[in-house]
Design a protein that fits this description.
The protein is an alpha/beta fold. It has helices at residues 10-20, 35-44, 52-57, 73-82, 97-110, 124-135, 166-179, and strands spanning 2-6, 26-31, 49-50, 63-66, 86-89, 114-116, 143-145, 148-149, 206-208, 213-215, 218-220. Residues 197-217 have low confidence and may be disordered.
């Protein structure tokens, strides 16, 4: 499969490196708002850099991996789907229901696949607990608590469009995965700054997934 990566930032770098290591996948192009950053990333994965119009016009490119800020997903995904490309999106799919519906409608009309990245569904703490729930080892879960201990993606100097929604799309749906059904009641959800704790990185209660340190999920039943 020939795939183009749209974006040249942190997430795009991770995605591009993953594609470069996959058998049967060729990175056809890197597209970035900053041409310099796009060229730098393209050189790392031995791919050309170009613009979005060229990607959409290239019939040999089968898929587009969208790694731009969440508020711009619709503007990239819809034209890509209309051009006959499959689309892979970073989470969340969009920042509004209207934009999300537009992306899904474009996928349905084009007959192409749109997929949304769900990295946390596959990290060991979640898969371990989910499997235990599925087997009935924990009885019937009634309460799930978990925390993601990651560096913040935003600050006063670097505000992000998903600072408030991040804990929702980044954690809440995984509670549903663990329970095997939608949670009946959300008790508390938020973001807080934690002080550095000496030795925390090696704590047996924390798991380093490569995407930040995560507290082991606890399930009460």
């Amino acid at each position: 499969m020939r795939i183009a990566v749209v974006g040249a930032g942190w997430a795009a770098g991770i995605h591009a490196a993953a594609h470069a290591g996959m058998e049967g996948v060729e990175i056809a192009a890197i597209v970035g708002r900053s041409r310099a950053r796009a060229r730098t990333l393209a050189a790392k994965v031995n791919a050309p850099s170009t613009d979005l119009a060229a990607v959409l016009a290239d019939e040999t490119i089968e898929a587009v991996d969208v790694c731009v800020p969440s508020g711009l997903h619709r503007a990239i995904a819809v034209p890509a789907l209309q051009a006959g490309k499959h689309v892979f999106l970073e989470t969340p799919i969009a920042l509004s229901l209207r934009d999300a519906d537009a992306v899904l409608a474009a996928a349905k009309q084009s007959g192409r696949i749109v997929a949304v990245e769900q990295t946390m569904k596959f990290v060991v703490p979640w898969t371990t607990v989910r499997e235990a729930v599925r087997k009935g080892d924990l009885g019937r879960p009634r309460f799930v608590h978990a925390a993601r201990l990651s560096p913040p993606y935003w600050s006063a100097k670097n505000p992000r469009d998903f600072a408030v929604t991040f804990p929702i799309h980044g954690l809440r749906h995984h509670r549903h995965d663990v329970l095997g059904q939608p949670a009946q009641r959300l008790r508390n959800l938020g973001v807080r700054k934690l002080p550095a704790v000496p030795g925390a990185a090696s704590s047996p209660d924390l798991v380093d997934t490569g995407f930040g340190r995560h507290e082991r999920p606890r399930v009460a039943h």
